[in-house]
Amino acid sequence: MKKVDRQAKIEEIIKQHTIATQEALLAALEAEGIPATQATISRDIREMQVVKERDADGTLRYTIYHNGEKTEAERLDESIAEVVAAVKRVEFVNVIHTAPGNGNSLAAILDDLAFPQVTGTLAGHDTILIISPDRASAEYINDYFTQRMIVE
Asked: Which of 10, 67, 94, 137 sees the fewest Cβ atoms within 10 Å?
């Protein structure tokens, strides 16, 4: 099967079903008669910008990241204001705490922007580590997040 056809089927599956793991996605593809490996699915997920988010019921599921008509920078700023709870810089690393279930999607937006002050990100359920090449870059990222988050 061609990659474009497989990816179209993946998009259809994750829009119609609650899929939260690569194993569940592989099983759903196999049920449709589409064989794939975990490595292939992993590449598809990355290329398609599939992220985990909570749906209206609070269930964690895969969804395709779309930024609509907003620029990625606008989307980042909006997301920081909506979901970031705390920011702490430790040397050249920033630790970002988010509302539960928002770490991965916020990190995906940040990765897409390719800030020169960001060497890499590591995201979890509600925490993101942003690794910078030096302290000055980490301070820039810390200031960027601090200025955009809403403190209640």
From this structure: 67
